[in-house]
Amino acid sequence: MKNNKQILAFCCILVLMLVCSISAFAGDGDEYHWELENSEYTGDAGSDIEDYSRFKIDPQWNKASTVPDKYVTPDISIKSGVSGTINKTTTVYYGPSTSYQTRETLYSGKAVTVIEKEASYYLIEYSVSGGLVRGYVLTTSVNGSFGSVPTANNNINKFGLNIYGSSISVYGGPSTSSYVSIGSISNREIITVLKTDTSSWYHVEYWTSTGNKRGYVQTQRISVPWFTYPYERPIIVGTRGTDYIPPDHVGIDIVVASGNNVYAMTSGTAFFYTRYEVEDGVRKMVSYGNYVVLNFGSSRTAYYAHLSAFMSPYSAPTYPNTTPPRGGSSKTQTLEHGSSYVSTGTYLGKTGNTGFSTGAHLHFEVREGSTIVDPFKYVLFPKMPK
After folding, report:
1. Burial 46-57 (b: 16+ CB within 10 A, else e)
2. pTM for this entry
């Protein structure tokens, strides 16, 4: 009797170990977890949770772009500029407009150097406590002979991304030794790169709660993906929600109301799918819900998930989500609606809240073969502060 009980206990342990070791997978990298399906999960609005343990996950992208020669401007920092004098009490702004943040007030007699002209403003350089700084004043505020002052040439004027891994300092000019620090740009913050001031410094514009500011950051800490990848944004409205935080979240979520258009980031073949499970005879959406897979380049794909509608002639189902919403399981089925070749910027469908989603948003994901990569390696979502 004692031996029989020991055998029975051993068999129970063996079965339990076997059950715990089994992972049932759905297509495209969604791993099913009993704990997740059966938990009372309540997520933030506009979030999704997937498990991609079958895939290789790249860390956050940390490779800056090489600036093409056509974007490298003459080194205006080593030019002497044109000397001038402030002729009246005047406000210095961080950009060529009163909409930019105010830096300070300068008074009559202050010596300045005029660097360039932009619209009705001069970019000037002057001394402050601790070093030099640059800012913008109305052209009528400065006395001097400025016929040789060049007109501003913002020849890059593209969105860039802080890929340094932490906050970076913004300086009042293109040097860490001569110019004072005027602020900082947080990790993965999107900015506008105006031009190269020197081969190692960008002149940039960035957002603050009291108005935009312009300043200078080192080029190796900023990436401008469109230098290398001529891709378009998959959506042009919304707010950046959950970021790319591997391995927990390997896409970018753009929180936006249902019904907003999403677009092909580049040309390729778009496939239209729905993921669902049958519960009590009813089809219910799980995982990506209605989604599009755009195949482009060499074994590269972009995923547009949780959509409410597809481009014509494809009809997106309106199955309800499971309660609570969940990822794929061994019961998950993938319904393919068809495929079409599309050009860059082609309308693909509309945002929604289908599948494993707790609020209307677009989950955008990029894969290189079997590796899921940072979407910001390909596209940026400007003016969508987190």
Report:
1. bbbbbbbeebee
2. 0.74
**281 contact partners, CB below 8 Å, separation of at least 6:** none
Residue 14 CA: distances (Å) to CA of 1, 5, 7, 20, 182 = 20, 14, 10, 10, 64
Instruction: Find all residues with CB under 8 Å of 188, minimum gap 6, and list them.
Output: 60, 161, 162, 163, 243, 376, 386
Scan for tokens 């772009």, then name that residue. 65
Neighbours of 164 (CB within 10 A): 18
Start-to-end CA distance of the chain, whole Å, equals 65
Query: At 224, which amino acid appears?
Result: V
Highest mean pLDDT: which range of 79-83, 110-114, 381-385:
110-114
Q: Could you tell me if 351 and 342 are in contact, meaning their C-beta atoms sit under 8 angstroms apart?
A: no
Only one residue has tokens 């509608």, namely: 309
Q: Could you tell me where in the chain the CATH 2.70.70.10 domains are found?
A: 24-61+230-377
Tell me the CATH number of domain 66-227, given options 2.30.30.40, 2.60.40.1180, 3.40.30.10, 3.40.50.720. Answer: 2.30.30.40
Cα separation of 227 and 378, whole Å? 10
CATH code for residues 24-61+230-377: 2.70.70.10
**Per-residue model confidence as pLDDT tens digits over 57-67:** 887 777 777 77
Which pLDDT tens digit goes with each residue over 234-268?
998 998 889 898 888 899 999 999 999 999 999 99
* Cβ-based neighbours of 69, under 8 Å, separated by 6 or more: none
Nearest to 255 by CA among 182, 342, 363, 96: 363
Give one DSSP letter per residue of 51-119, joined into a string: --TTSEE------PPPPPGGG----GGGS--EEEEE-S-EEEESSSSTTSPEEEEE-TT-EEEEEEEET
What is the location of CATH 2.30.30.40 in the chain? 66-227
